[in-house]
Amino acid sequence: MNPAYATVDHVFTTPLDHSAPHGPTIQLFAREVADPGRVGEQLPWLLYLQGGPGGKSPRPYAGSPGWLPQALKTHRVLLLDQRGTGRSTPVTARAASRFTSPAQLADHLSHFRADAIVADAELIRRRLCGDEPWETLGQSYGGFITLTYLSQAPEGLRACYVTGGIPGLSATADDVYARTYPRVRDRVLDFYARYPDDADRLREIARILTATDVRLPDGDRLTTRRLRTLGLALGMGGGFERVHWLLDESLDARGELTDTFLHQVMDLTGFTDNPLFAVMQETLYGQGDKPTGWAASRAMTGFPEFAEDADPFLLTGEMIYPWMFREIKGLRPFADAADLLAERTDWSPLYDPRRLAANRVPLAAIVYHDDMYVDAELSLRTARDVGATRVWVTNEWEHDGVTASGDRVLSRLMDLAAGRA
Fold first, then answer.
1. What is the pLDDT of residue 356?
2. Annotation says 348 is catalytic
């Protein structure tokens, strides 16, 4: 019993490959959460689909995540660790190193996309709810999963809420990154406008890294291009301040990089807890016979302002590059398998446009106008093509608005889905 919440842990066994139900299996972990005062009531279920890919579900404590108290007023919540994350047979660097070949590992990883997560969710729903449909709350990548859910098993859904995560149904990885680089550039320039001295500080750190072999506590070399990946944080509420205060303690009185800075950079850029975020990032856009082919890396060549010696010195965002799998300890065991995934040409479709157009499951979504990670124009285009969809567009919050807003985002989405707003 949690002091703030009543919780029950659930473990399920599911096929690694749902098309081969008698093959290898994995374990799924999910935590049921309820208001302690309503434990005995027959409340409707709300499945939370975490962002990512590769993010485990949040661990609840008093008032956190910010949307949970609102959800528990009317629902029993299921916090699912999606396959490969948290306590659901986690895919870690250590686990990856046990595979006998890159091809074997790549084949294993191919079963960790949204279609498999939806099949997992349906298996769990039938165990917990029988034939009763449930509701879902999809944050970021969880919204991508929601659209796959509506494409593949809408009968399992009563209503869906999506926060900052409506994908372009036919957008390729090339389409996505062509739109992403300009948004990241603008966000970095906004950061420099708020903290002008940080532009000079980052340039000085880059000069040190170019001239000196600087090692992180785990032995990895800190390079300029790894430094630039700190920009990933800028799309979240408080992200500007997180990077600013990190830089504030980056140099000591002698002009050398501090241990505090190096340790924090290692944690922020090491992918120790979520290697699937890097490994599976571009597979989100794999549909049909066109390889993703390290699209973010290719797209960068079309934006000379992102050259390492360009002025101003631009950070990067939610882009994953091939060099990461050779230079970052937590990703090295995945390197050759990641190359194979980038070359793959037999991805199954994740969305069914015809079924989505005929959708009758209420879908309420918030689109963050200035979202650094998910393109608002693609999101609105999809929303127009999906039946029973109501969209709220705002620039009041960043990508994590559902948590940062307390009860405001989720309560309004519930009202939208129910026709009350």
1. 98
2. no
